[in-house]
Amino acid sequence: MTRQRELILQILSQSDRHLTADEVFFLAKLKMPSIAMATVYNNLNAMNEAGIINRVHMDGGADCFERTTDKHDHMICDVCGKLTNVRFPELQAHLQSALGREIDSYDLTIHCVCPDCRGRR
Amino acid sequence: MTRQRELILQILSQSDRHLTADEVFFLAKLKMPSIAMATVYNNLNAMNEAGIINRVHMDGGADCFERTTDKHDHMICDVCGKLTNVRFPELQAHLQSALGREIDSYDLTIHCVCPDCRGRR
DNA sequence: CCGGATATTTAGAATGATTCTGATTCCATT
DNA sequence: AATGGAATCAGAATCATTCTAAATATCCGG
Fold this sequence. Notes:
about 120 residues, alpha+beta, 5 helices, DNA-binding
């Protein structure tokens, strides 16, 4: 656990939203001006593989990262593009029994219109 | 519908697996040596937006494309990396009622060990 | 506390997928 | 045959991400 990794993890832990590598880099530079982009990616990748953080793929944009909490899925608003977390506690078991096979993991992203945008129409 | 688009669609329709833009380009060049990569991407994007084909994101690799058939999800083998289609006919309705909101669409990718790799251990 | 092995960081170059650009070609219509 | 609009082409450009090689930090046994 280097100072750089600690800082990156702190940034992700304190953020209330998903951050791109660029955003993490920008925020990290405020606290540690010498930090390099490669370091940000190195640590994001390492922590992602260790399961400490999650990488989230965004269609037509840079990947986002978030501090891992409990297993959850993602919902993207078709109107404003906001990414939020949703939870379906039974889903893995459900898929597993429908498939008749053990599942290691799954990624689910739902596209819908978020409450804010729905109300605004 | 230009000759190029027709060819690209034919290539995807006749393939028994998901193809990257590069693979489509290679196969298209065999039939039409003057075709350009930009044309392949233009048409893949246009047909994807029109719902005629699907773009499938692959972790750490180029996106893949397939001719659209019925709605289905994807399963990637953690061992050999093979991508196969799976169907959960009830899933969208299920997610919708669990979420209490209308869903426009969703993407689900399951990570597991495919039957071939399972048997081989 | 010291020396050396190992891992990490840094800056910038390199990569790879995809998109953009501007000129050209195609096709349908007049 | 002329016109206009859309699609194509080749190659340059872009963007996110990874790689490289040198410098630095960290850790461990003595």
